[in-house]
Write a structure and sequence with these properties.
The structure is a homodimer of 206-residue chains.
Chain A: H1 10-33, H2 40-47, H3 51-57, H4 61-85, H5 94-104, H6 108-120, H7 124-149, H8 158-175, H9 182-204
Helix pairs in contact in A: 1-2, 1-4, 1-6, 2-3, 4-6, 4-7, 5-9, 6-7, 7-8, 8-9
Chain lengths: 206, 206
Amino acid sequence: MTTQAVPREPQQDRSRATRGRLLEAAIDCLASNGWAGTTVAVVAERAGVSRGAAQHHFRTREELVTAAVEYGSEVRTAQMREHLSALAGRRPSTLEVLTLLGEMYTSPLFRAALQLWVAAGSDAQLRARVVPLEARVGREAHRLAVEALGADESVSGVRESVQATLDLVRGLGLADLLTDDSARRSRLLRQWAATLDLTLHRAEAP
Amino acid sequence: MTTQAVPREPQQDRSRATRGRLLEAAIDCLASNGWAGTTVAVVAERAGVSRGAAQHHFRTREELVTAAVEYGSEVRTAQMREHLSALAGRRPSTLEVLTLLGEMYTSPLFRAALQLWVAAGSDAQLRARVVPLEARVGREAHRLAVEALGADESVSGVRESVQATLDLVRGLGLADLLTDDSARRSRLLRQWAATLDLTLHRAEAP
């Protein structure tokens, strides 16, 4: 991305690239090693960045990990918007949208976020940092789902159904944590899509 | 419970009681302190049991914590069955069942189980122990939900809808981890109960 940007200070470019590598490495590290196995030093090594340079960007693991989950969510949301707009004006089917959401919530990013959420559950200082982040990420996911599904939230029950869909895929993400749950997940999303279609459609034409 | 049982060796009784106290304390400890803050020593202190006695029952944190989640799930399932049978033959409404499930998946037991699942995600040895436990707990929760909802799984789509209900409440449990999500959860479960009623009913009389 940076190569296509307006020319800027090479040093600033390098600094941005280093930051990006650290954020990507933090997501991978959290997703595979868990919270306890993720420190600034471990992530720096994974990213091929000196420990000093990493510390320059992120003083603590908490700073690094929250920034990584925020960054990852933005990238992932942008990718999903791109994917949806690549459909060239055709409204994606409910099942297509659910399948994309299902992928989003079984990705390394979801696993990384889960590690952060769970660690924040027993650490008041971390919780104060994570709660507003969770709210932002949640709102963005909701907006994306509403747009993608073409849901009319002014109709009674529709808002709750979209929210339930996001809670469902979050639960499916959890179910995929220890074993490959993809076969069950597709059966289930097919059924959920049929039910959701009824709700969205019934709501449009009561 | 043990006081009403057939008389047995007092020492055996004491041993069972000690074990039970350790298991309860392990659930509370995991739910509030997280995985890193839960060791056999910390749980022993919380349970008012000597470290030696605790080690006699559970050699490692992994043993203690898996036993605690299994025990907690059995107790919680038995409580829910009792609650349902106290309705004296009246079939509980779908919303009543969903509300009970929602409580089950926002309890300290769910938080404790979540800590265990997430820790197992980055520890192969622990995963080998947790995967069969997760499967057993999942099957039991599914059976309970089917019974409580009076769902006929021979009808197409019903099994998936019951499973989706459990994945949904699991996602709701996650949403309740850092902030009180109860108001949103009840709106959402009310809406899902209405949808699920249609699915179960439509399936019964096509």
